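Q: My collaborator sent me two sequences in one message, no labels, and asked for predicted structures for both. Can we handle them in order? The first one she listed is below.
A: Yes, handling them in the order given. First sequence, followed by its C-alpha cells:
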Amino acid sequence: MEEKLCLECNTRINGRADKKFCNDYCRNAYNNRLNKKSKNLIRNVNNRLKKNYRILEELNPNGKRKTTKTVLADKGFDFELITNLYHTKNGTTYYFIYDLGYLPLENDFYVLVKK
C-alpha cells in the first residue's frame, strides 16, 4: 500500500484512504494559499460594494430622494460598481447595489430609490 503524505506539510497521513491532510490546520492553510489571489479580489470588490450600499442607505433612509453627483462622489461613491440594472418599459435604466439604486437625471442630479 502506498504511503500518503499531507498536501500541505508532507507528513505521513493515517486514517481513511481518501484523506489528503493530516489535520484541519493543514487543510485550511492549503486552501487559503490556493485561493489567496481570488479571495483578495472578491474581498476588495465586496468592500467597495458595501461602501456604495452604506452611502446610498445613508442618503436615502425613506426610500426615495434626490441628490447630486457631487454629494455621492464626495462620500466616495464608486459609479463603476453595481450589482444589477433595471430597465423600465419606457427605456429608463436604474443602477442597483442589491436593493438600493439610483437613476441619473439631467444636470448631474440623481434619484435614489429602494426596491
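Q: And the one she listed second?
A: Here it is, processed independently of the first:
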Amino acid sequence: MSSLLLEARNITVGYAGEHGWQSVLEGFDVQLVPGEVVSVLGPSGVGKSSLLRVLAGLQTPHSGSVSLLGEAVTSPHPRVAVAFQDPSLLPWLNLQNNVAFGLDFARQPKVAADERKARVEQAIAEVGLQHATGHYPAQLSGGMAQRVALARCLARQPQVLLLDEPFGALDEITRADMQQLLLSVIARHNTAALLITHDIDEALLLSDRILLLGHSPAHTVGEWRIDLAQPRADRIDELGALRIEILKTLRRASRTPDPVTEPLPDSLELAHVPGRLHSHTA
C-alpha cells in the first residue's frame, strides 16, 4: 500500500423533510490506498448506500468533498467501478456483451476494437467464465451473474471498486467463493475497494479496515484495523474477540445511548490478540 487513491472529507448526506433539512450521515471521512479493502458496517438506515453513491459520483453530498488522485469527483469517474447486490445484467445481451457493455458507460474513454476485445476476454478469464461467454442472463446462476458483474467492472480497469452488498443474495458456499475471488482480483490489480455490508463476518474476512456507522445522524463510531494475513477463513479463533467487540459497538450504534448510564467507551481493548488487531471508537 502506498499513495492515496480515493479520499472523502466531511461528507454529509440528508434530505429535505417536512421540518426542514434532515441529516442522515454527517462528517464522514475515509481514505483508500492501493490494495486496501475497507468495509463500512452499520444498521439499516444510516446512509451506507447513499454514501457509496456519493463516493461514486452518482449523488451530490450536502457538504464535503470526494477526490480521486487529488482531483474532485463530482460525477461518475471512469476509474471508479460500482457493483451492487443486483448484478443488473441486460437480458438481451449474452455474457460477453454484458461484460463489454461496461466499456460503453458514460465518461468511459473509448478504446480501439482490438483492445476492447482483449479487455473483455481477460476480465471473463479472471472470473472463470470462459466456458459461458455465449450464455444469456437467464441461463446463469446467481453466483455466475455476480461474476459477470465483477468482470464488467474489471474490463474498465478501475483503480477503485465500490461494492454495495454484492454477495448478500448468494448462498454461503457461493458467497465464500466470490469473496475469495474478490480478494484475488484486488491483489492482482492492486485496486482499492470499499465494501458496504451488514455482515460482520464478511467484513472480518475481507477487510484491512472496518468502519462502523451509527446513531442519528450517523457518523463513524468505531474503526478497526486488521493485520491478519489472507486467507483468514481458517483463523476464526483469532478474529473472535474482535467480532464480539464490533457486535457490542454495533448494538450501541443502533440506538442513541444515555451519556450518563451508558457511555460509549473511549477505546476497545483486544487483549486476546495482542499486536494483531487494533481498534478505535469515537
